[in-house]
Amino acid sequence: MGACAGPTVNSLRDPVPEPLVSRTTVPGYSHIRYWGDNGEGLTPAMVDQIVAQQKAAGLSPTVRNFLAVSGGGSDGAFGAGLLTGWTKSGKRPEFTIVTGISTGALIAPFAYLGPPYDQRLTEAYTRISGQDVFRRKPVLSIIGGTAAADSSPLQRLVAQYVTDQMVADIAVQNARGRKLFVGTTNLDAGRPVVWDIGAIAASGVPGRRQLIQDILVASSSIPGLFPPVKIKVVADGKTFDEMHVDGGTSNQAFLFPSTFSVKEKDARLQRSGMQRTLYVIRNGKVVQDYAMVRPRLSAIVGRSISTLITTQGIGDLYRMYSNAKRDGIAFRAIWVPDSFTMEEPRPFDPAYMKALYLVGQEMGRNGIPWATQPP
């Protein structure tokens, strides 16, 4: 499994008509999301507000550090360990922007809030097992259903960590001009959606904590294996529902849409001398380990999807590298080393996750061997 799970979806729904897809809003909110493949969603007004908040908060006028955390399911233990080890090294920077996809979406709030949340991040990736994430469904119940597994355990796990205090802390950091973005995929539109978690947290809208939980779970919901998350929206005065699934369906990692250029924004704002660095944590290897595949449907499909995820992840690294180079952003990437050869006997195996967490933590503590270009 490349990610986690999602809430139950009823067979009956009110999908958004195609002409209204780009005109929907979540009731009570404004400007909390944009299409992940279109930079127009990052409007000049939004950029100006962020710049003003950063200035008022006393952030460095020239230094910006960005962090993108990829998908990877239980391999998210690597990213969790890397971040906590990075803290112990005393060299972990404060990130102006943090983005997350799938398991990276679950890590992102902890990474965004920094070292005070390291202990909870450690718990989330070293004290769980498969039963804390999903429950297998009986074969007969899968027929005609929306997924092969029940995600109720994951929903409870996310609710345990995404507390009112966490939401309040995210809102405080959002007011400083720091942004937390999480990606999902709108299944009807077949397009990536980027959610501004900080804006949701700071909105004061009742139910904002639940919406954040739903988005994090949606970002981890592999289509077919786990049910999509339904999110109520309105358009033309009518209520509809959108189906959101794993952000990894669209991208394994992201920073900005390719059509958005910070270099162009600098020119508009007449800024110069900016020093930006993008750090990408790839929760997985960039080369598939050799495995003899059994001539069975499940084994063939599983291996094929795993290979697709690996190659898509590499492609995303190249896309992010190309965009960073265009905009004068220093590129740094890290992934699970080939030297880690332990096999996972079952999804979210505790021993596997703890071992991978320690590999990441040792890297973070002793000096991360960042790659300055894609593999």
Describe this structure in words.
The protein is of the alpha/beta class and 375 residues long. Helices cover 38% and strands 17% of the residues. The chain is built from 12 helices and 11 strands. The chain has helices at residues 44-57, 76-89, 103-113, 118-126, 139-142, 152-161, 164-174, 197-201, 208-218, 262-269, 297-326, 350-366; strands spanning 33-35, 63-69, 97-101, 135-136, 149-150, 179-186, 191-196, 229-235, 238-246, 275-282, 329-335. Strands 1, 2, 3, 6, 7, 8, 9, 10 and 11 form a 9-stranded mixed beta sheet that branches. The protein starts with 32 loop residues before the first strand and ends in a 9-residue tail after the last helix.
Entry summary:
The chain has twelve helices and eleven strands. It has helices spanning 44-57, 76-89, 103-113, 118-126, 139-142, 152-161, 164-174, 197-201, 208-218, 262-269, 297-326, 350-366, and strands at 33-35, 63-69, 97-101, 135-136, 149-150, 179-186, 191-196, 229-235, 238-246, 275-282, 329-335.
How are helices and strands ordered from N to C? EHEHEHHEHEHHEEHHEEHEHEH
The parts where pLDDT drops under 50 for at least 5 residues are 1-10
Structural class: alpha/beta
The number of E-state strands comes to 11
Outline type: globular
Oligomeric state of shown chains: single chain
Distance between the termini: 23 Å
How many helix segments?
12
Work out the radius of gyration.
20 Å
Largest sheet: 9 strands, mixed
Helix-residue proportion? 25-40%
* Overall average residue pLDDT: 92
Task: Tell me the strand percentage band.
Answer: 15-25%
